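Practice problem: predict the structure.
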Amino acid sequence: MSEAQHDNLQNADGQDPIEQQIEQQDDVTIISQSVLEEIDNSNAEENEDDSIKEKHEIPMLDYDALSMEELTDELEKLVENEKVMAIKDHAEGIRKAFSDKYHHFIDEKREEFNAQNNEEGVDFEYHFPLKNKFDTIFNAYKANKAKHFKQLQNNLEHNFAVREALIEELKQLIDSGDSNIGDMFKKANDIRERWKNAGAIPRDKYNILWNNYHFHTERFYDVMHLDKEARDLDLKNNLEQKQHIIVKAKELLNEEDVMKAFRELQLLHRVWKEEIGPVDREHREAIWNEFSEITKQMHDKREALYAIARGKETENLAVKNEIITQIEALGTEKIDSHSGWQAQIKKLEALREAFFKAGKVPAEVTEDTWSKFKNAVRAFNVHKNVFYKDIKHEQHENLTKKLALVEQAKSLQESTDFNTATPIMKKIQDDWKKIGHVPRKYSDSIWKDFKDACNAYFDRMHEARNAESSEEVEAFEKKKAFLEELKDFTLSGEHKADLDAIKAHIATWKTFGKVPFNRRHIEGKFNKILDALFEKLSMSKKDTEMMRFSNRLEQLSEGDDKRALEQEQFFIRKKIDEVQSEIFQLENNIQFISSSSKGENPFIKEVQKNIERHKDDLKLWKEKLQQIKNM
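Answer:
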């Protein structure tokens, strides 16, 4: 490749190294011959001239692996502490990573919203303060960048005007016809030094201006052809400088930091073209080819580095594809419980975090991989939302059921018929417990309404029962005093009069009412007195027993002891079964005795009497059962 083809030299990014450097440099002065001296200087980093000091390297992080919070913090740190053009690639990488994560995050929130809201006219809105913070920081970066480019553009235009003036000055020098060769070389060298330090110009004007300058430089040498010695000396000096550049370029091939070496090689290309004049034609092609070969080797080293990076990106792609496969499988599992889905969501979060931390993938599959990831997550969310839609439908049904119980509880909360209402209220409470969850936004209010209605009823019931308790205490005191009076009662011997008197005592006892539960033993004392009085009367066993039984039933009835009545009925039915079984057994035994001896056998007579007694008992038990049924 000839030196004249220099403008077509492309780096791996497809951009001319010089033009790229003009676009990216923080300090817009074109680097002069002193760059070579600085490259040789081991203390270059301590030089105070920022235009020739080695650039500050900012490490490029794997932004895809960072969370949105970490990305925001990293951008804020870079904007506050680094030059705007030094962080251009970093800012764009952070913006893209944040944007991808944010849109994915919002998509999930939108799907959750749509799954929970079926009402028309309700638009999805989600306030994410971190997004506002990120936009503010990024807008500050863009403002700084715009300010920088405006200043840079002003500098470029100024430098362009300066360089045009230098070309015009060179033209005037050539056309002046000055016969003093020494003065002309001195003035030409002064123009060249000022050209070197004139700074960068707009890219679209670069080639035209440089070719124009090169053209007039060649004109100058043509004019100076009479002074071959001075011309040869200048060409020799240019050759030495370019040879020195080749030496530095060869040293860069041994630099471990390939990207740093590549950037320094770009600077050497700039000096070669911008700072140093032409060499003798016999050396021009050879020296340029040697420099070009070094450049090619540097490109090869960078391509090898890129190949390693692409290999790592291929490995990352395999990892991300495996993660996508796991997410797809996760979205097809059958889950039937809220706790199960919560566990699935945690698994998804872990896989998503692993995806973001897996690193970059080849550029040509980046969008496709990201699309597959989003689709897998979206499919998982659709599967999840179907489950929660069903739950939502069930919860609305539960809400309807509980609202009905609330209305029923409210309708009874003012009731005074406690015997009727209390079992109903208790059943309402049991039914409430059996009904599942309702939508969260209604749960607190509906529970409060239900609890208030139940509390209102039971508070009133307890107040009423507390009032009844004082009446029961009073009834106990009256019955206690009445028992003392009965101790002095004696029978007159007149059966009817005595029976009427006992019945009158029983009636009086009943008028006193119920006593407290823990003092019901007084009823037993009264029954013992009645038993003693009945024994003194010449009453049949049956009548006596029935009077005792009737009194007992009335006591149980007055105490609203339904369970005791049921137990009493169960006991009587059991006794009836036992007596009937005994009668059957006795009658069956008689069948085994010979008919000839039945009439005179005393054992048979005793058995027959026993059967009659059991039949009397059976009749009595049946009358008791009927009396309970009548109640």
